[in-house]
Amino acid sequence: MKKRSALILFLILLAPSISRAQALDPGKMLKPSTDTWPTFNGDYTGRRYSRLTQINKENVSSLSLAWAFQSHATGLQSMPLEVNGILYISGGNQAWAVDARTGRQVWHFARPGMAVSGSNKGFAMWHDRLYLTTPDAQLLCLDAKDGKMLWQIQVDDPALKAFGGVAPLVIRDHIIVGTSGDTADLPGFLLSVDPMTGKIEWRWDAMPKPDDTVAWNSWPHDTNVVTRGGGMTWITGTYDPELNLLYWGTGNPHPVENGDTRPGANLYTCSIVALNPDTGKLVWYFQSSPHDSHDWDTVMTPVLFDGTFKGQPRKMLAQANKNGLFFVLDRTNGKALISEAFVPANWVKGYDDRGQPIPNPDKEPKPDGVLVTGGVGTNWQAPSYDPETGLFYVNSRETMGVFYLTMPGKSAEGWAGRDFFLGSKSMLKAIDVQTGKIRWTADTEGRGGQSGILSTAGHLVFTADMSGNLVALDASTGKALWHMYPGGSFGTGPMTYELDGRQYVVFPVDGVVYGFALPHAETSGR
Amino acid sequence: MRFSVCAPIGGIHVKKSALIACAILAVAFALSAQEAAPPAGAARPGGPGAGNAAQAAAQAAAADRGRAAFKQNCAACHAEDATGGRGPDLIRSSLVRHDKNGDLIGPVVTGGRADKGMPPFPFTDSQISDLVAFLNAQIALFDLHTRFGPYPNDIPAERLATGTVEAGKAYFNGAGGCSGCHSPTGDLAGIAKKYTPPDLEVRFLYPSGTPSTAIVTLPSGEKFEGTLLLNDGFNVAINGKDGWYHSWPRSAVKLEVHDPLAAHAALLDKYTSEDMHNIFTYLETLK
To answer: Which residues of chain A lie closer than 8 angstroms to B255, CB-CB?
Structure first.
C-alpha cells in the first residue's frame, strides 16, 4: 500500500498539468507554519492555537474588516482551510475557493442536480485534492485547482437517516472519514480511504465483534442490539505522529434514550478511541459516558499537548465533554489524570479506577420525566488550548434537562425519548489543565456561546457570544478587548493565518465569511 | 378515517398517545413518497390540502390492511411491530427503507429467502402495496420519537402525574414559595386545561418568553423604563414605556434589571424529580 501510494505521489509530482505551487505540501501537516491552516483544526493537535502575534492584546481594539465573502448560502458550518493563499469553504452540496487576501471568489462547486442546502463542517486537503462529506452520506473528492469533482463514494446509507458532515482528516496517504445519524438505529464507524481512488483501505467499527471480549460483554445478547449501533464519528479527530495514534470521539449508543434495551457499558459508544491509522486497529479506549442514555456524544475535539503533570513529563489529551465533564488523559494509554465536572453534573455517581464516570441509574430517562444536569455542557464547536497560559478554553452551558422515555420496552429503536433543556446559562470557561479547576469564567450577561474558539500567541481568545457578537478576550482574564456584531448565527469558529506580513482572523457567520485584520497603517513596515 | 391506522400496535406501548401520533402519521404517509423525507418534526397535521388528505386517507386504509396481513403472515418471525425476532428487524432494514412502491419488498415476499428460511408468500401486487404502506407507517412512528418530533406532547397526564396532590400542594404553599406569586383560583385557575401535559410541566419548571424589564439611568439623571432587549456588556437596548426603542453604550448608563423569572430560575436548581412529579400532579387538578 505504502509503495503504491509513493508511486502515485511520484507520478503526481511529475504530472505537468498540476500546479505544485498551489498544492498542499504534506510537510505542512506535521509542522504547520503560520501562513497556512491546512486541516479542520489547523494542525493535528486540535489546540486551535496560533503562534501569530501581529494581532495582540495591545492592538486588537483596532481590528477591522479587511473583506467579506458572500456565499449566498445560509448557516455555514464549515471551518475554512487556507493553503497557499486560497481559502477552501464547504457547504452541504456545494463549495467555494476564495482568495484569502481579498475575499474574492476563485471557484464555486455545486453538485449537479442536487439541492445546495445543508451544511458540512469543512474540507480535508491532500496535495491538490479536496475531500468533503455530503448530506446524502457521500465522500466527494474535488480538484482544488478548479473545484471539479474527481470521484465520489457512498460512505453510509441515507435511507437509514445516515448523513455526512464531518470534515475528513488526512494522515499521510489516508483520508479518514466518519459518519452521522441518530434517527434510526445505525452503527458508527471510521473509514480510511485511498486519496487517489476512493478505495476503502480499512474500516473500524464502533460496535465490537465477539472476539473482543470486554467490549462484546458490555452489551446484552438476548437481542441484536449490539449490531444496531450508535457510536457515530461525526467530528474530526486528532493525531500524534510520534506515537502514530489517531484519536477520535464516538457518539451515543442506540436506541438513544432507552438504556433498558442495552444493559452494560455499550462499548465503544461515547468513547475516545486511539487507533493505529495504518490498520484501523484499536490501541486503547476511554469511555467518557458508559451506558449513556442522554445523547452525550464524546465527539468533542480530543486536544493533544505535552508537558509536566504533577512533576512528571506526560503526553496528554484533554477533552471538555458534552456530558459536563473535563478529562485529561495520558494519551499513551488512555488513563485519566483528571476527571472533573466543569458544569454541575448530577448524573455522575462517581468514577472508576480508570477515571471513567459511573452513571447514576436514577438519572436515566423515565416515562414521567427526570431532572438531569451536566448536558449539554458544551457541544462540538471546537475548544482551544493555549500552551502559554496552560488554559483550556471551552464554551460551556449550564441547563436543567428534563428527560422523558417515550418508547419504553425492549423493542424500542431510534431516539425513543425526548428531552428539554431549561434555563440555559452560557459561559466561556478557562480550565487549568494541571488541576481541572476553572481559572476564570467570562460570564458577563450573554458572553459565552456556542461558537468555536481560537487562541493566539497575541494573548487573545477569539470566539462569539450568545448575543451575536464576535469577541476577542484577554487570554489570562477573559476581559473583552474587541467586539463586533456581524448580524448572523454562528455555525463554526474562527481561524487565522498570515500572508504578506498581514495576519487575518477569518470568521464564517451564517452565509458570510468575514476576514479581519489590523488597518494597513499598523501592519506596513513589518 | 385517519385514525384507522392506529389499530393496536403490539410491543410499542404507546397506547392513547398512539391515537394522536396516528393523525401525524397520516400526514407522514403523504410525505414518505418524497425523495428525501423531512425530519419527523416537519410532519405536523394541518398542512396538506384536500387532495393530500384524500391520498393520506387511502394510504392509512392501505396501511391498516397491511397491518392485518402482516400480523397474520409475518409477525411470527418479524414481530407485530416489525422490529424483528427470529427474522430481521424491518424498521431499520436498508432494503425496506430503499423500497419504492414494493420494488424491493415485493420480490422478497413472493420469492422468499430460502437460504434464510423464509418461505415464499403468494401476495398480489395490491397486497404488497398494503404491506409497504404498513411498514412505512411503522418507520414513521419510530422516527417520530426523535428530539425534534412532536411526539411527547401526546404524553398522557396520568403518565406524568406520579406524585401526590398533597405533596405538590404542600410544596406550592411551602418550600417552593409558589403561592407568593401564584394562586390556584386566580392566575392558575384552569391551567391544566390550557396546556398539554408535557407543556404544563416544562412551563412550570421554567416559563419562557417573559422578558426582563429594566430601568436605565442616564448621567443627567433622566430615567428610562421598559422591556429589556439587549444587555451584552457592550450595549443596552430597551423597548421603552414611551413606545420607542432606545439604546445606549453600556458604560454610559446605570442599569437595574428585574427578571420576573428569577424565582423560577432559582427553583430550577433545587427541584428534585419527586418535587416535579408532585407539583405536576397538583397542577393537573386545576381544571
So the answer is: none
Domain ranges of chain A: 34-523
Nearest to A368 among B84, B159, B272 (CB): B159
Report, as ranges of residue numbers, the positions in chain A whose pLDDT lies below 50. Answer: 1-2, 10-19, 525-526
Is A34-523 CATH 2.120.10.30? no
Q: Please indicate whether residue A295 is annotated as part of the active site.
A: yes
Residue B43: its pLDDT value, please? Answer: 34
> Which residues 440-499 of A have a C-beta within 8 angstroms of B?
444-447, 465, 467-469, 480, 483
Question: Which residue matches cell numbers 442546502?
Answer: A117
What gap in Å lies between CA B65 and CA A103, rounded to an integer?
A: 60
Across chain B, what does the average pLDDT equal? 81
Q: In Å, how far are A154, A180, A234 from A137, measured between CA atoms?
A: 6, 8, 11
Give the other-Cβ count within 10 Å of B36's Cβ. 11
In chain B, where are the structural domains located? 2-154, 157-208+263-283, 213-259
Mark yes or no for CB contact A368/B143 under 8 Å. no
Cα separation, A495 vs A477, in Å, equals 21
Q: Stretch B77-87: mean pLDDT, rounded?
A: 91
Considering only residues 387 to 406 of chain A, which have any Cβ-Cβ distance to chain B shorter than 8 Å?
400, 402, 404, 406
Fold held by B213-259: SH3 type barrels. (2.30.30)
Q: pLDDT of A37-63, one tens digit each?
A: 999 999 999 999 999 999 999 999 999
Q: Which of residues 99-128 of B touch A (CB under 8 A)?
A: none
Q: Is the pTM of this model over 0.80?
A: yes
pLDDT band at B25 (very low <50, low <70, confident <90, very high): very low
**Residues of chain B contacting A406 with CB distance shorter than 8 Å:** 17, 145, 151-152, 155
Residue-wise burial string across B40-60, b where 16 or more C-beta atoms lie within 10 A, e elsewhere: beebebeebeeeebebbbebb
Provide the Cα torsion A424, A426, A432, A437; round to 10°.
-30
Q: What is the pLDDT of residue A171?
A: 96
Average pLDDT over residues B13-17: 32
Beta-carbon neighbour count of residue A221 at 10 Å? 11
CA atoms of A79 and A97, how far apart (whole Å): 13
How many Å apart are CA A430 and CA A391, to the nearest integer?
6
What is the 3 state secondary structure string of A48-109? Answer: CEECCCCCCCCCHHHCEEEEEEECCCCCCCCECEEECCEEEEECCCEEEEEECCCCCEEEEE
pLDDT at position B280, please? Answer: 97
Ramachandran category for residue A291: left, alpha or beta (phi over 0 → left; psi -120 to 50 → alpha): left
SS3 assignment, position A498: strand
In degrees, rounded to 5, the angle at the alpha carbon of residue B14 between the alpha carbons of residues B9 and B15 is: 80
The Cα–Cα gap between B205 and B199 comes to: 10
Strands (E), A111-168: 124-126, 129-133, 138-143, 149-154
Q: How many CB pairs (< 8 A) connect A and B?
A: 132
Q: For A199, how many CA atoms within 13 A lie in the half-sphere containing its CB?
A: 7
Amino acid, res. A223: T
Residue A484 · residue A468 · CB < 8 Å: no
Give the separation between CA B54 and CA B26, rounded to whole angstroms: 10
Taking alpha carbons only, the member of B200, B190, B188 closest to residue B276 is B200
**8 Å CB contact between A73 and A511:** yes
Q: What angle do CA A445, A450, A454 make, to 5 degrees?
A: 100
The answer to whether A331 touches A315, Cβ cutoff 8 Å, is yes
Residue among A394, A236, A251, A389 nearest A302 (CA)? A236
In angstroms, rounded to a whole number, what is the distance separating the alpha carbons of residues A503 and A488? 24
